[in-house]
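Question thread 4412

I'm putting together a teaching handout and wanted feedback from people who do this every day. The idea is simple: show students a protein as raw sequence, then show them the structure tokens that encode its fold, then repeat with a second protein so they can compare. Below is the first pair exactly as I plan to print it.
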Amino acid sequence: MNTISSFFGTLKSWQIAILILVVFLGAAAAYTGYSTLTSTDKVELASNQKIYLVEYGDLINQVSTNGSLVFPNKESLTFGSAGTVSKIFVGDGDTVKKGEQLAKLDKSTIASLEQAVAQKRVALANAKEALQELKNPNNALQIAQAYASIATGKISVRSAKELLEDVSAITDKELQDAYEAARLAQDKEMTSIHDLEVKRQNGANDIETVKEDFDTQEAAYIRVFDKWLGIRISGNQLQKNPDTLLAEWNVDLEKLFHKDSRYQDLGRWTRTEGPPTDDPKTGWNEAVVYSWLNLFTHEILPTCPDLVTDIQLPNPRMLGGQVLCIKLEMETAWENYQAAGRTLMARSVSAALAITGAETQLSNNMNSLDSARESLDSLLKGVDSLDVAVKEKQLKLNQAALAKAEDDLTELLSGVNMLDLALANENVKTAQVELEESIEKLAASSMQAPMSGVVSEVLVEIGQDVGRNTKIIEISDPSVVEVDGVVDEIDVLLLQEGTTAKVTMDALPGEYISGVVSFVSPTSRNQQGVVTYPIRIELKPKLALQLKEGLSATANVILREEKNVLLVRADSIYGTFDEPKVKVWSDGKIEERVVKLGNADGFWVAALSGLVEGEQVILETSEATTTGGFGFAKGFGGSFGSVGGSGVQGKR
């Protein structure tokens, strides 16, 4: 107390006055605050008003459809040929793997199909051979013979003219000079004819000799592969060297004729006591190779090392007949064959050129004779008309034969007829297609599963006669499961392939299976005025989940999803479209707040601004009648982004 008295005692009068003023103002402020806190101006909520907190959550737009599970990957299998069912290896509901045998036709039908395949192979080989002959004609001899036919035809024409001239009457001495000129011209013509005949005969003989050598070398080239591998080449294979042929047959001489392969089955590379059977999957004959490896007593070198090929020995046998070199023998046969072919071509061209030169000389001399005889003909008179008519007819026949021989030569020299070549090509293609079809029919006679799956139904019995298109077995792939459903026309434009979906089934209560929209029909269905569009949803079930076709399912297709957005009830919004508002309960008072809104699902609306998490918004129930804005709020959610589907949202 003394301390306080001493404190005031030290203050001056003006300081005491200021202190009293501060105390008075503080008391006034305290009273004012108390009055505010105890005031009765607070607003109380009406009975039809409720408060909810603004919170963050997920806004989802989706559309639902009901349907059933289907397995879209199905195949109804047929044999493709008429016959009798001899065996069925599966039953309804069996699980099969791709390639597994399902059923089989009777032996008689299979034998008939095998025979058809063999016939088609022969037809294809014949068609290819005919095509090859057109592409590579060996017509040098035919050309020489055609030249000879022309020369003979011209001689016949000249003889007919001479006979015609013989029946003519000669009137004066002037004919002597004309006869002499004709005789000299005829002598030159005969000399040319003789020269042409000699060249033709020499050319034909030369070509025939070379052709024999060519045929011999060709046979040797064919024989060398038959000898070592049991393969008989033909057609266009004759135009390929040993390396190319061995590569096409997948033949490795070093491996095939390796000394360690003795007494082995070359198809399985295992020990065997006797010759193996021929493996149709390989190009070579296993028995032939086995015989060389196990019956020939001396050494066989497949590809001839440099040390051996440097030794020049005939018939490619080396080291005194103790060693055979396979590759060298093949290459030697190829070189001899090619050399013979080049020689044949050169001799054919040389013979043709010689004949052409002789023919040109003969033609010039024949023209000279024609001129001489025309002069003589003009001097001839007193012809017997009947005899002349006969001789003229014979002359025309000889001239027609000569024209035919000239046309034949022109065709030979012009090369392959393109129409014939095109026809031969089409024959090969047709034969190839027919062979492939017959092979497919033979393969189908032993029915195999085209995919892994489940046998939906076996439609025939053992012993039943079936046609080529009779359905035998139906198989389904259960790894691909889809839900067939429909959506309203107001939703279809928002759907597209790849849109995610969640599927529920009565058979799996409480579980969701993910999926995607795999098909949206471009055409609609109209039933009693209701327009819908079919859709299909492909499921992605867990590996361990075995679904059954026909199960009912409900698919929710997610059209749009916004994560972690501030949500406000659509029916708590009022105001105008341009300026939506909500009522916020704050400190016992109602505050009107303008908000900016985003997407909506028909119940919740995303608040983009104007509110913060945790604020209290007033929701007025349908009993309110004093504010017209709440009537507008009932349709507000649909005006801001509602897509007509059911809305699902979760709040944090």
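The second pair follows. I'd like the answer to focus on this one:
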Amino acid sequence: MSGSPRSAHRWVTVVALIAILALGTWLRTTQLTSTTFTFDESCSWRISQLPWSAMFDAIARDAHPPLFYVLMRGWLGLFGPSIFAARMFGVVGGVVGVGLTWGLLRELVRQQGPSPSEDGTTQPQVLARKLFPLVGTLLVALDPLHVQLSQEARPYTLGVSLSLISAILLCKVIRQPIRFSNWMGCVVSVALLSWTHYYCLWTVAALLMVLLVEGLIQLRQPEFHTSGQRLLGGLALTIAALQLVWFPWYGTFEFQQARAHRQLWMPPLTSEQIFTALGKALTSGQDPAFRADDLWWAPIAWGSIGLLSIWRGGRYGRLLGLLAVFPILSTWAYSANVRNILGVRYLVFAQVFCLLATLWLIAGIHRRALRASAIALLIAWTSCWMWSSYVQRIRQAEVPGLTAAIAHIDGQAADALVVVSSPFVYTMTLPVVGERDTWRLQYRGNHRDNILSGPALQLTDYQSTGRLLSAHPPEVWTLDETGQFRSESRVRLPLGYELIEEHDFPDRLRRPIHFWVRHYQWRGGETQE
């Protein structure tokens, strides 16, 4: 009979976990293709479609390591090059991350062992043993920033999932440093994480710091001296393995870094940017309904959660705290002293651990009523911002902008010459229109210094546009935009073309953007451009 309650609890846990995963999947697939495929997503799509040699050449001109593009290439090869398939890659990474959250928290609870209860006896806390992993999984499933980035064909949710896997394997290494399989799994996951996104390198550094701290702590305790030596020795071997993995990519990394410093100017870091970025990450993931000055609490809250976890959370509180705080401090220090790289989406690798560190601190509260109230407030906070983000997503879907503009052109002039105003807009059209001879890019400047060091374009995308226009086709459609990069880009046609009609297609994705479809006819003579 003793096994019956345990079996019932196991089934309740399985059902609850399935329900949470279903909720997370629904949130991440709702309105999946209704919003504009962004420029960054279009670059991911295009780079993944290129031949292998051209793909690695385009990655070198991009600002990311190669793992995501290689995996995306295989994914689109299996499921087709549609926008839905591309974004489903992020959705799958996001849902897997939700499931891995349960795995990490279950591992922490299992390794933590029994803890003192309120009456002083040694019994497992009800929250820690039964609800803690499920509550943490629910929080990540509802997390607005994680949901938002799960709907993008970008490497963010892949990085979060690999971060969680690395944390799980790191816990196993700390518990059993003698097992070779634990070390191999940890080294492989950390190496893959480092090749996913350059911001993940801060998370990798935090994981290595956890190993260093735990090794030094155990080294000072006679009963754990051997374990401490193994942890420090394994740390040295892990660093050496990462050096070997990165050796073939160092040259490309230095080229990317030099290009970013030379061509991608960023404004200096300000306190307003820090408040805004951390405030967005802790709320809706988008522009919160606050002024930047009202978000002064965000860095204080984030830092306090991480430091308290490190100071009072024990071994695994230190793990969560370091993974929550160290990447933020590293990003801030680099941005203040080298180059500003602070962005909301890049904080997701640490933000998930900040959320879990908060729950870890709450789990340590001895008063049951206070603990339950804190959990309810945390779930309510996340749910309210998730609802706000969901409503905003529905509103964005009502103005698809670029998709509607392309549909209008296809409906009016499927075979006419269409000229796009900038390399960035042209890149965004490719996942929708595909490779069409009638769609061309107009660009004036040195393509090798500008175009081929930014958007993932090929020479055939724009080299014949001038020749086609010089032949004076009887009608030309143009696709222009305003607001994409806080400026305007417009096609300039030869004299003799008269504007017949124009249509505005607003796109409220993150900030006011407008795509303009203009129809010109050749009249001859000298008319307006």
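Top answer:
Good format. For the second protein you could add a caption like this: Strands lie at 115-116, 122-123, 417-420, 439-441, 475-482, 488-489, 497-507, 513-522. Confidence is low (pLDDT under 50) at residues 114-126.
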